[in-house]
Write a structure and sequence with these properties.
This protein is mainly alpha-helical. It is 69% helix and 4% strand.
Length: 331
Amino acid sequence: MTGYPDAIRTVRWMVRDTFRQSVATKLFWAMLGLTALCAVFCFGITVEGATERPRHPGELPTYMPKGQAGPEVIAEGIRVPDGKVTLGFGLFEYPITKSKTDAVRVILVWLAGVVADTAGVLLALLWTAGFLPTFLEPAAVTVLLAKPAPRWAVLAGKYLGVVLFVALQATVFVGATWFATGAATGVWDGTYWFAVPLLVVNFAVFYAVSALLAVCTRSTVVSVFGTLLFWLLCWAMNFTHHKLATTDVPGQRPAAGVLVKAGYWTLPKPLDLGGIFFDAMKAEDYASPVPELAAAKARGAFYPELAVLTSLVFAAGALAVAGYEFRQMDY
């Protein structure tokens, strides 16, 4: 029974060491700096003159430049801009036909779905990829391995520490941009906070692959580029599956469909994770996700719960293999 307290202490120590490492390498402050820049951008948003009105289910998603639409056009259901959004403290502006709440929600969807969930997760993978290879250098890790602590706890603690570090940064990002946008526009959209678990799950899944590459190669370069290439492969597989499931592709062989489906259900699904956030924010009516994903939703071929579950199962498998390889290493 003494092994479990030692393992728990090891995990806790590795989590604290990861946060110490993030501060020592200035990564902690660099990510906070980017969050501050995004918050400043949000403080510069204003929404003026947008009519607050409910959307009709049959309302046409058509825009007509202001001043070019007469009563007969409006009667046909075509929306005419009656407000504007300004960005950059008035440097840029564009007309809107949505309500003020919807106009702000579009900006939040882009902040979370593109800036944070795509660019942010990739940057986090890039910046944290060196944590494990550096730690696994013989001069660094042998001190820990000489103590009575199981190797799996050392690796699990380091992985958990990085995931918790990114979770903290994601929470600060969402909180800062949500507060700045609300203070600037008066719209406080609580569904924006769904971005936090989305970002953490997305990062945790792919950081498991980064951990596996780090253990197998002890190379930061391989961990960085290998994880980014794997993310692109998963995104392409996710996209291709929805494309083949919703479109008749000329020349498609049955074997190709079987292989794509097997790859889709085996690999993580970054495109689907983004689609879950679109659904949580009810953004499909005024923001344009990937058309293939929207078509999969329309045909009932999108299973958000299974997408999350199978992605997490893949991450658990990658971590299990990494733990096994770490146990076999000679130092």
